[in-house]
Amino acid sequence: MSTLNKQYRLAARPVGLPKDSDWEFTSTEIPTPGEGEVLVKVHYASLDPAMRGWMNDGKSYIAPVGIGEVMRAGTVGEVVASNNPGFAVGDYVSGMLGIQQYGLSNGTDLTKVDPNLSPLENYLGGIGMPGLTAYFGLLEVGAMQDGETVLVSGAAGAVGSIVGQITKIKGGKAIGIAGGADKCKYVVDELGFDACVDYKSDSFIDDLNAALGGKGVDVYFDNVGGEILDIALARLNRHARVVICGAISQYNNTTPLRGPQNYLNLLVQHARMEGFVVFDYIKQYGEGVKALATWHGEGKLKFRNHVETGIENFPATLLKLFSGENFGKLVLTIKED
Amino acid sequence: MSTLNKQYRLAARPVGLPKDSDWEFTSTEIPTPGEGEVLVKVHYASLDPAMRGWMNDGKSYIAPVGIGEVMRAGTVGEVVASNNPGFAVGDYVSGMLGIQQYGLSNGTDLTKVDPNLSPLENYLGGIGMPGLTAYFGLLEVGAMQDGETVLVSGAAGAVGSIVGQITKIKGGKAIGIAGGADKCKYVVDELGFDACVDYKSDSFIDDLNAALGGKGVDVYFDNVGGEILDIALARLNRHARVVICGAISQYNNTTPLRGPQNYLNLLVQHARMEGFVVFDYIKQYGEGVKALATWHGEGKLKFRNHVETGIENFPATLLKLFSGENFGKLVLTIKED
Q: Where would I find the Enoyl reductase (ER) domain in this sequence (chains A, B) (predicted)?
């Protein structure tokens, strides 16, 4: 085996969409674990909209990735060397090891996963961060109740697809918004949403109103921001909850971000808009993983991964998130053999 | 006494600031109360930012004022004729009788008030709707806790002035935003806020940061919207609450409303933004009035009214709200003798 560790490092802070020149593709020696450390061979990396935010300078819920540092990413892999009594060679783990073939950890940020229970890549998706984001966002932040109507944007995406399925499991009405007829068909036929409307269609507004049947929205779970957020704000029921999970339509803006013009409908409807990141619920991850894995095992919760291959394809693959080309949770296979 | 009842009626839906031609000044016979009805001679009318919203067509928390109808307004006055056993001639009452000298009511929307306990005009201000708006907005919607930092815009206004004073009563730090040095001096010296910053000053941002002492905001109580809302959103503490009470900077816009561009800080800080109107708390008004009147009686809560005189001055006086010319709760004396 090669003794080199290929890595993607952040070379410059992007303006708008990340360009090739914003990255540096490097090779260094595979590190040797020190006292208490674990060396993990990365099998899969998770590509997520949040990564775009980590590339910007400035205060956020997590420090930005430094220039010259390996790009931060969620990963799953196999322990190949360990000086930590908590981890043995051959263990499978998930953790934030970044876009590289081998990562070192002191073990505190690693979670053991079982590839016999579910394919390894699902620990980056449906029973990983996106699944937990959907779970805590809908049930804790959104406080969704039986019988309520939930509208979710990015409905075919890693988070949105699970939001709608949990809505159905919990007795609600799930209406998705997605880009394109294929995605909408998948959301309704495969995932069991009550309806899905295509925001790229000329009849989007009429279709949305028809799906709502003249009624309003109790929970709007927003992954996209921009105009769709405003359209949802105009359709809130009294005491509605707007869950701000992301704003992928705005992440690559070079002009000022579009604020929600209809925010005063929060006043009219005594509604609230609340943001969160999944890390806020770290103490409850066990509960969330258990629920997601159970529903998945019972066939009530379906996951779809969009897997691309090769660390060298990282920059181009990441861009698929922003063009909406991915269909399902976007995962990059890093392991070469 | 004249048998005519002067009234201001809505003649047209304003575009931007209300113009003279949007009003019709009429005189009709003073009505005679029918079975169960009460005739009230209006002493004072309350002029409030919310009135601008009632002049627009479209769905809101309350039906718009119809073209040709007497302009809706909160009032206090004296019962001068009654066919309702609940009210006697000589009773003082508050109710939504509108911009007119005499109003009829079936009594269900009237509340008896005691001018010996507090001057009549205070029932339109500190112990009326603005006081209740501050009370429920800060303590229920904002869920303000002992030791927290509360930032409030419109700090010299009818609602904002009370928000900061309740903050102090409840053990918090109160920082106001107001327009002009005189208002800021009043807010600190008379009302006891910890600090007040002048948004019209060139050093506004620096002054605000200095008042916050490098710390963030736990509750932002927003009466103004626009750029100041964005400035506050950028300074939220974790789990902060943004209370949307109004957006006076935006009510006369003829261009699209400015949405809060910094709303994604809700995500970063796991914060929430929630709107309300005081009518949402109608069942708790008694509790609120009692608390406000008690604090006022103990000298802990001060009110300032800006009283103008003459029903014929209604259109011009209303505009003072939007230019910020009023200093204290804006009240119009309607009673002529």
A: 16-332
Six-digit token string for B218: 């736990």
d(CA B137, CA A87): 52
CA distance B217 to A231: 29
Residue at B295 is within a domain: no
Estimate the share of chain B in helix, then strand, then coil, as percent rounded to the nearest 5: 30, 25, 40
Q: Are residues A150 and A95 in the same domain?
A: no
Please tell me whether residues A264 and A307 are part of one structural domain. no
pLDDT, tens digit (0-9, with 9 covering 90-100), for A131-165: 999 999 999 999 999 999 999 999 999 999 999 99
Rounded average pLDDT over B158-164: 96
Are B259 and A260 in contact (CB < 8 Å)? yes
Number of folded domains that form chain B: 2
- Contact assessment for residue B85 and residue A292, using Cβ atoms and an 8 Å cutoff: no
Q: How far is A314 from chain B (nearest CA, A)?
A: 26
Domain shared by B120 and B105, yes or no = yes
- Shared domain check, A275 and A257: yes
Task: Give A-chain residues touching B271 at CB under 8 angstroms.
Answer: 274-275
> Is residue B139 located within the same domain as residue B250?
yes
Q: Is B168 exposed, middle or buried (0-12, 13-18, 19+ CB in 10 A)?
A: middle
Model confidence at B1, pLDDT cuts 50, 70, 90, reads: low
| Per-residue pLDDT tens digits for A177-235 | 999 999 999 999 999 999 999 999 999 999 999 999 989 999 999 999 999 999 999 99
ipTM of this complex: 0.87
Does one domain contain both B51 and B33? Answer: yes
3-state secondary structure of A46: strand
Which residue in this structure is represented by tokens 């006076």?
A: B248
Whether chain A has a CB inside 8 Å of the CB on B277: the answer is yes
Length of chain B, please? 337
Q: What is the pLDDT of residue A1?
A: 55
Q: What is the pLDDT of residue A71?
A: 98
On whether the CB atoms of residues B263 and A262 are closer than 8 A, the answer is no
Eight-state DSSP code of residue B108? T
List for chain A the helix, strand, coil content (%; round to 5): 30, 25, 40
Give residues 31 to 90 of B whose Cβ lies within 8 Å of A: 59-61
CATH, residue B60: 3.90.180.10
- Decide if B250 touches A, using CB distance below 8 A: yes
Distances (CA, A) of B282 to A42, B83, B285: 59, 26, 5
In a domain, A82, yes or no: yes
| Chain B CB within 8 Å of residue A243 CB | no
In a shared domain, residues A70 and A189: no
B259 — contact with chain A (CB < 8 Å)?
yes
- Cross-chain Cβ contact B270/A280 below 8 Å: yes
Domain span at residue A259?
Answer: 129-279
